[in-house]
Amino acid sequence: xxxxxxxxxxxxxxxxTTLAAGEYLVRTxxxxxxxxxxxxxxxxxxxxxxxxxxxSHTYYGINPALFxxxxxxxxxxxxxxxxxxxxxxxxxxxxxxxKTVILPVSYFSFFDPEFExxxxxxxxxxxxxxxxxxxxxxxxxxxxxxxxxxxIYSGKLSSLLSGKGLSYDSLGMGTDYLSxxxxxxxxxxxxxxxxxxxSAGHDAVEGHFRYARKIADFCRKRHLELVLVTTPAWHSxxxxxxxxxxxxxxxxxxxxxxxxxxxxxxxMRDKRFTADDFYDADHLSSDVGARKxxxxxIHDLSTLK
Amino acid sequence: MLFNSFEFLLFLPVVFLLYWKVFYRxxxxxxxxxxxxxxxxxxxxxxxxxxxxxxxxxSYASGLLLERFDGRDGLRKLVSISNIVLNLGVLCIxxxxxxxxxxxxxxMAALGIGLDKVTLDLILxxxxxxxxxxxxxxxxxxxxxxxxxxxxxxAFFAYISFFPQLVAGPIERATNLLPQFLGPRRFDYGQAxxxxxxxxxxxxxxxxxxxxxxxxxNYVFDGYQSIDGGxxxxxxxxxxxxxxxxxxxxxxxxIGTARLFGIRLMRNFNFPYLSRDIAEFWRRWHISLNTWFIxxxxxxxxxxxxxxxxxxxxxxxIFLLSGLWHGADWTFVGWxxxxxxxxxxxxxxxxxxxxSSGVVAAGRVTPTLLELLQIAVTFAFVTVGWIIFRSDxxxxxxxxIYRMFAEFEPVLPLMYKKALVSVAILxxxxxxxxxxxxxxxxxxxxxxxxxxxxxxxxxxxFLLILVWSHSPEDFIYFQF
Lengths: 305, 480
Known about the structure:
The complex is a heterodimer. Chain A has eleven helices and seven strands. By secondary structure, chain A is an alpha/beta fold. The radius of gyration of chain A is 21 Å and the shape is globular. Chain B is mainly α. Chain B folds into two domains: 6-185, no CATH class; 204-276 and 355-479, no CATH class. The longest helix of chain B has 38 residues, at 73-110. Chain B is globular. Chain A binds chain B through residues 1, 3-4, 7-8, 11, 14-15, 18-19, 22, 150-151, 154, 157-158, 161, 184-185, 188-189, and chain B through 20, 187, 189, 192-193, 196, 222-223, 225-227, 418, 455, 458-459, 462-463, 466-472.
């Protein structure tokens, strides 16, 4: 037994050393949009005039390079209002030129659970803790280790060996939802995504609405224009939304507009967007669809002024 | 609790140390096994522990009653049948009620008779098919006089609930496992090391092979209507390796873990994709279930001793039951029927035992062309069966297979490099190790005598798991 335990201990040490070395390599040498955005904003936030917040809908859907003014995409996949607010205020002391904040409001924005309350989405919070200096969790919690999410850890180690290219551009926009590799079967997956985005309960609504208001309060205090945007979707997605959740979303947007005098641009059912523009049922492709959408958005923003 | 989870990584060493160092007296050790096993299972849903306890108590009591009614055949038969009805009744309510209700309603509707469908919508308790069959094995063997009923309550509870094989087998026989809980266990260094190797190999099969194949499989089966036939073929092939890596990987981890506790579980897979015909495949795939069906259904029905017609009927019965055991859906029944249709011609021709012992190309490095062809054809048939198994509906299975042939164009899925390479590694290792029990069982001679070589192999496998493991998928066989 003693011999067995010693052998296990030795191999365990080898494993532990490898895992620790992997953690270091992943943190230090694997590029990711969170690290890039934090470094970029820390250096350049003073020059930014238009800041794009939000989830994958804007991360892949709004191209900051097309704006005449200096714009930056601070959206991240699955980013919720809580982290939109944290990131917006994180660089508050640096904003010298900021005029406009674009905040997407999607069908799920008020209903998805907070990262920390979700068995699957908690892994997103790790990115903010490790790479964006967001101190919402202790240094000794699972949120401060890549190893705590083994599949992502493995994927990053693997990408380190295979030398996978960057999946975002120099202004923070996601670039890997390409029209050439778009998803298939939207009629069915649109339905499935709509169902996945529909929450059984409404427990999270109050928390999300509180953070949406905090964002609006911050913008009002700093005299920034806050524009709410809903990005285009394919018909199989919006035709299968739960009417109660969709209605609640509309009414919460209405409350924000009334209380803060915000502009709201809703493109969800916009017929100008065709199959060529989408990557899947609820995302524009980052090369074709995002260009078209950003051009339209720039035009509509100019008419608001 | 999943074998490939952080919780299990903590659970296993703690239970191991307590088992050997603190609770080493036999009775206490068995009680500890039960407590640890109930914790392992209850981690998922503690409410269903009551079902396991019910199955255990009923089977234990049946054993005692069978002993008490020794010599009174009528009463013994009544006790045995009651126990079978009760155990299968629980299984049917949880697993099959909705299926039979929906099927009856559909059949009546087809006959023009309106019948409201009644469904219970119950959650299927994980592993219920496995532990129910294991419990049945005990009472049937006691009834047949193959094993004496036990009076040792902790040992019997440990036999039914032993955590490594509780939720996905191997489905143990009372004749093999129960005596191991009735007698003292001794720690054996060699067995423990073998156990660790088997666990490592099981993790590779599950986390690298199965989970990487799952990515392709999910993509292909979800969008089969718009995917070319060549890719559909690959979808079927990758599913064959997904289900093999998933299930045999689980069995390896289970058997390896049991070895750490001084328990030998039966072998569940014997390199099935190296089979030369479908009969050999079924002797090498899910051995514990197939031998269960043979011992408790096929042979009592007359096996192959009462002529060809009865033998064909019996083969059909066990394949259809095997299909239903896997799930309450017509796709599983179709999968069972398809395999029966592949098996029956061999039975009629008297060739179903041609490859009943030994391995392909024994004593040689490479197979003959004929052997290679036999392996490839068997694998192709098995894969068509897996497509039926994996499909959501019979019409999807039909559409998939039709499109696979009608729209076929050769393609190599190079974008799924990890799946391709991991399958290649698996098959290469299995070929080299086909005369051993599992992929990482080293010979006592040659290079592997040197510890450093063995450790390099362990480390390489660990690195493969670390770098190539895919987002974890649930073990497929949990749902059965």
